[in-house]
Structures are given as C-alpha cells and as structure tokens.
Amino acid sequence: MNSMFSRRQMLQTLSSGFGYLAFSSLATAAAARESLDDKPTNPLAPKDPHFAAKAKRVIFLCMRGGPSHLDTFDYKPELIKNHGKTGAFRGSLLKSPWEFKQRGESGLWISELLPEIGSMADELCLLRGMNTDLPVHPRAMTQLHTGATQFVRPSLGAWTLYGLGTENESMPGFVSINSPAGASQEMGSAFIPSVYAGTKVGGSGGRGGRAMRRGGSTSTVPDIRNSGLTTKQQRTQLDFIQRLNQEKMQRDQHQPGVEGVIESYELAFRMQSAMPEIMDVSGEDEATLDMYGINESATSAFGRQCLLARRMSESGVRFVEISHNGWDTHFSMDSKIPELCEQIDKPIAGLLTDLKQRGLLEDTLVVWAGEFGRTPYAQNGNGRDHNNKGFTTWMAGGGVKGGFSFGATDENGYEAVEGKCHIHDWHATILHLLGLDHTQLTYRYAGRDFRLTDVHGNILKDIIS
To answer: DSSP 3-state assignment of 175?
Structure first.
C-alpha cells in the first residue's frame, strides 16, 4: 500500500464503487468486519498536550507574496522624514502613502487601510521583529510552513495534528482552504504518517478563490458524493477492502503505511456526511453573513473562507489554514495594496468578532503571516522589493497578550533590531501555546529524531498572557 495515498484518492475510490470488484465477492464482508481484530489505535484520536495549553486549535491566515509591513502594521515616522533619501539602500526611501492611526485602548498603530482589523486592535499581538532566512518566495514560504528551506519536512499543521490529534473523528484534523496547486509540501506530512497531512478544500490560492463563492461550497471537495452506491453498499465494500488491509498487516507485522491507509479510508467514508454539512453556510443568519462581508463583492470569497474556518474550528478541526494570494507588490502598490487590504479587512475582523462572541477566541489561536515583508526603499517607483530581514506578523486569542506589540525593526523598517523572532522561534511559540514542547515533539526517521524547529527555537514568553 502507498503511504501517501491521499484522502481525495480515497474519496475517489469510495465514490467510484470499486467497479472492478463484484458484489458477489463482498457477500462475506459484513461477517469479515465483525471478525476484525487487532485494529490499530486511531492515530487521529485526541491526545493530551505536554502541559496545560493556552490554545486548543489554530486558524492560520496565510498572506502569500510578502505583505508590506510598512503599509499595514509597522508605523515608521522616521521613514516619513527620510522619504526620498538614498544611502545604504538600492533605491530611494519610500514612505507609506497611507496614514497610520492609533487604535483601541491599547493605541496600536495600524494603517488606515485596515480600519475593521484596527477596531480589533485590543485583541492583536503584533510581532514586529520577524525575520527569516531567504528573500525568495518558494523557499521562504516553505520555511514558514515547515521550518526548512531545502528539505521536505512535515508542515506546522501536520505536526500540530500529530501532537494533539483531532476532536472530530468525522472531519480531517488539518484543513487547507484555497491553497495553491503547488502547496503540497506546505500542507504535507513528509515522513510522518500521511494521515496527518492537510486536506485541501476549494480554490487555487487566488486572492478571492472563485470556487469558494458558490453556495454551500460542497463542490470544492472532490468526490465527496457517491452517485452510484448507497451508504450501506459503500460500507460493505469498504469492510471488504479493510479486511484485506488487515490481513496484509498481519503478514508483514509492521506496516505503518497500511495503518495510515486504513484510518484514511474510514475518515474519507465519514467525511461524506460530515463535510458537506459543515461547509453549507446557508443556515447562517444575515447578521453573521454581513459580519464576514459575504454579501459584498470585494469580500465575499475571503469572507466565506473565514466563516468556514470558524465552522470547522467549532466542529473540532484542530488546524485550519486559509490562503490569500497577490501580496507580491513590486509595482503599482498604490492600487494593489488597498485592494488586497479591502479583501481581507472585514472578513478577518468578522472572524475575530465571531470567535469572541462564541467564547472561542480565548482558546483559538488566530495567526496572520506572510513569508516575509517588503523593503523601505522604492522599486519601480511605486513598489517594494522582498525583505526577509524584518517584517510583521500577528496573533490573536489563544493565550497571547491582546493590544500588545513585541519587537521592532530599525527606524526605516528594514531590519529587525529588537525582540527578534525567527521562524523557528515563531513555530516554537505556537506549539507552546498549544501545550506542546517543541523539543519533545519529535518523530524518529532515518536514524534520528526530527522536530519542527530542528535544533533551534526560543519561545516568546513576553507575548504570552
């Protein structure tokens, strides 16, 4: 059996009806199921954290392309004064075209482009001293997700699911919404069992995710329905296949790949009823839809994704990631950045508000991040280049201090100089908030114990409430 057999392939298999098998061969399947013994423990069952957790689940808002921290969350009055000057930079310094205002009782400085998120300032913990290794999109995005730039490693979502399991046996524990076609490594499990990999839902990583605009969005989960067989027939069929899998395990003694396939088949079967129900937002009231901006053209798609993230988190999904593309603003930033900010502003504020109203924000860690930031100097006259030396991410809920700013870049916003937070530190802190010791969350592979943070990682204790 192939340990990388995906849940989509399993849904396809269930949906197709195993046409090559005659139902006469399945006559004994029900009896076979009753005799299944030595069934492996469900690897997705909830697990105790290493210590008391602040957060139970994560919603990761991934802004692809490198959002400009200088035009969103990192206010630089000196950059305004230095506008047009040259020096050690490769171009003239460029101030933000937009005003920053102090928001909430905490007085966090946030761009005028994000008024709705600004209204939630007292829930935000800004990490303004971020830095990563490379200013190259693919490698930086891979490091953001896996901690590595060169090697295939398990993703943050996969490590989280491996460490904690999931609270809903009928849903994937790790869901990636609107991820790009080439993001398999970012949501993959690498060498840990494939059952911990992310399940892709809808879209192709676009800014709005056109596929996510449709009704209840069930069509964005491939092969979720079987038009040829009843549920009872599928169950009988699956029992027979699982019996064959069990016999192989008994022959080979140790087959972790087959164990993963067995559980993934069962999960795919259960998903057929659970997933469409959770993805159908038609039962939400108008006030909720308005809160997420679902009835407005600019915010409809991303708003729907944020609402789905809330519904999935509420149902027990451990880790939900949403992708929003287009933040690579080398030019035309005066028109692109406002458009991008408009698309995410109301939906994200709606998500935070909704989670708070439902009592979920206190144990849901919401994370906003891109792979790096942008330079303080101009590129193409009206754009900014890649900058891995200093940028901003933020967290909310899940045990972090609200209305708090940690770390800083230099006066022009080029390089982190205070409260430096490398991606390894960021990962270590997220795991810590989930009750996981990043040095103890390991997996034995190729003769050594691997972990998300490799041999690095310092917990940002100053941001923990």
So the answer is: strand
Domains of the chain: 7-18+58-463 (3.40.720)
Cβ(416)–Cβ(409) below 8 Å: yes
Pairing type for strands 174-177 and 319-324 reads: parallel
Query: Quick one: 345 exposed, middle or buried, by C-beta within 10 A (0-12, 13-18, 19+)?
Result: buried
Which two tokens mark 341?
Answer: 């900010």
- Give 213-260 pLDDT, tens digit per residue: 433 343 456 566 666 667 677 667 777 777 777 777 778 766 666 665
A 10 A CB-CB count for 254 gives 8
Residue with tokens 């060169």: 150
CA 114 to chain centre: 21
Q: Phi first, then psi: what are they for 88, rounded to 5°?
A: -80, -5
The continuous run of DSSP H or E covering 343 comes out as helix 333-357
423-436 core/surface letters (b: 16 or more CB in 10 A; e: else): bbbbbbbbbbbbbb
pLDDT digits (tens, 9 = 90+) for 404-414: 999 999 999 99
> Distance (Å, rounded) from C-alpha 154 to C-alpha 361?
27
Question: Do residues 386 and 379 touch, judged by C-beta distance below 8 A?
Answer: no
